[in-house]
Amino acid sequence: xxxxxxxxxxTTSTRAIVFDGAMAVTAQSQQEFPQHFPQSGWVEHxxxxxWDTTVATCRDAIESAGITxxxxxxxxxxxxRETVIVWDKTTGDPVYNAIVWQDRRxxxxxxxxxxxxxxxxxxxxxxxxxxxxxxxxxxxxILDHVDGARDRAAKGELLFGTxxxxxxxxxxxxxVHATDATNAARTMLYxxxxxxxxxxxCGLLDIPMxxxxxxxxxxxxxxxxxxxxxxxxxxxYGVAGDQQAATIGxxxxxxxxxxxTYGTGCFAxxxxxxxxxxxNNRLLTTIAYxxxxxxxxxxxxxxxxxxxxxxxxxxxxxxxxxxxQTQALAEQADPHQNVILVPAFVGLGAPxxxxxxxxxxxxxxxxxxxxxxxxxxxxxxxxxxxxxxxAMSADWKATGVQPTLRVDGGMAAxxxxxxxxxxxxxAPVDRPVNHETTALGVAWLAGMRAGLYPDQQGFAAAWARExxxxxxxxxxxxxxxxxxxxxxxxxxLSV
Length: 495
Hints:
By secondary structure, the protein is α/β, with parallel strands linked by helices. It folds into two domains: 240 residues, 2-Layer Sandwich (Nucleotidyltransferase, domain 5); 214 residues, Nucleotidyltransferase, domain 5. It is built from 17 helices and 22 strands. The strands form seven sheets. A seven-stranded mixed beta sheet has the order 16-17-15-14-20-21-22. A five-stranded mixed beta sheet has the order 3-2-1-5-13, sandwiched between helices. The chain has a two-stranded antiparallel sheet with strand order 4-7. α10 crosses α15, α12 crosses α13 and α13 crosses α14. The longest helix has 26 residues. 53% of the residues are buried.
């Protein structure tokens, strides 16, 4: 058994990747699934789609690799984190669609709880802000709006989980109801200091604790897959939320190391070691990973729209047919136009945390066309990243902060975007040789647990840089452009 199967269940697609004994990609399979938008600000997935695409991509990747399930030492699972699924304990049937992390329907609920003075307690225990982004209020909404759900939950008939938890339950045929510490830390129900579910918060939100999964280390025994799924049972050995998995895959194991992942959203994590740092700049305190019962903490900044802005150019404005076209368009843009796009399509994340504002564009002229819009879209990701890094720098002043940003995710492949990122943050940006950092992170967790892959130190030593982008923009221009961005954000927030 010399292979590891990584499941990467994301916001818009599910992927399965087979890694060999040297942690190289042997085969992979990917399937997109529908997004559902029942109302403005609502985002849902059908859990059946999540499960079906998981099984299909796993089978396809195993077949493409020319191996059988008996050749696989273990499975690692990474997932969209805050997304909520509630299902029947007996049948496994979901009682409602998965409510996605982007969904803002519980903004009023969160506002009511804030006004009642509960946010300081919740932040102190969970490291999170009282925001619809996190799982707790979404879970409350399902219990309140699905007929009989609260009664059934109180009787122990319903289970709650993030997507990893649902997949583990399904893969093991209902034998294991568990998650890992990184996903638990994103629910707004988990005390990251005590390492357990918070009775106080569950009581406040009227959430029966019987619904909640067991919380394990990121590298642990999460049960075995049912034999009929892939031909023979395979142990599940590694689990981490997508951003934490990317942190692991980037080998950010030392305090001060920093990574940023550009998928649908953008997520920057700064390793703060064994110390949870309370943010004064509306960043999140979270668990980067937990091994052998010991959590390592991080500061996290979350941007809701990064790669999604490119999808909007393609699907909404229809000015591109493929994401890769944005680079050529940005290169063609009129340098004398200064179009600024604030992509607040579902509100603004860190450090603003305003769920109600919506996107805006500034600086339009008669000459503004697809090239200028593409450039503004890519620049918006750089500006938002700088917002995060400045907040992190203000919160964590310890020595040893690494000035270099390690990047991954789909948009990291865009050279123009990465060069602008380096220019606007005035720091080097490193893109690794292995672009599959999220999947690699959980593959390493599973492979290490199985005894196939090296320890932390050995894994960190194997990390390799493909490209470094260095800042070329002059300080004056950098300052002008970032000041323009900040004015645009303030104008957007004021509408």
